Amino acid sequence: MKIFVNILMMLTAMCFIIAQVQWKVNTSLITFSIKNGGFIVKGSFDGLIADIKFDPANYSKNIIDASVDVNTINTGINMRNN
Q1: Helix, strand or coil for residue 78?
Q2: What is the percent of the chain with per-residue pLDDT over 90, rounded to a whole number?
């Protein structure tokens, strides 16, 4: 009986591990546009880091944890980037 219970517990744990899918971001595109001195300025950020966990059986446990380094801003003008 102990062996059966142990096997059942291991299978249950494996189901929880398999049910949750974890993704890593391979490519990303973060763009923006702002009005600066009457002109529309477009820019972008590089270096997005994100950890995405998705469980289709339990949406309340889904997580997106993302950040981007503000030092990677690119507006096309270094002075404005700084």
Answers
A1: helix
A2: 22
The label of the residue with tokens 């949750």 reads 20
Residue with tokens 């966990």: 53
Q: What is the DSSP letter of 16?
A: H
The model's pTM is: 0.56
- pLDDT tens track for 36-63: 889 899 999 988 888 888 888 888 888 8
Residue 48's CB: how many other CB atoms inside 10 A? 15
Beta bridge partners of 67: 49
**CA 51 to CA 29: how far, in whole Å?**
16
Q: What is the DSSP string of 27-65?
A: ---EEEEEEETTEEEEEEE--EEEEEEE-TT-GGG-EEE
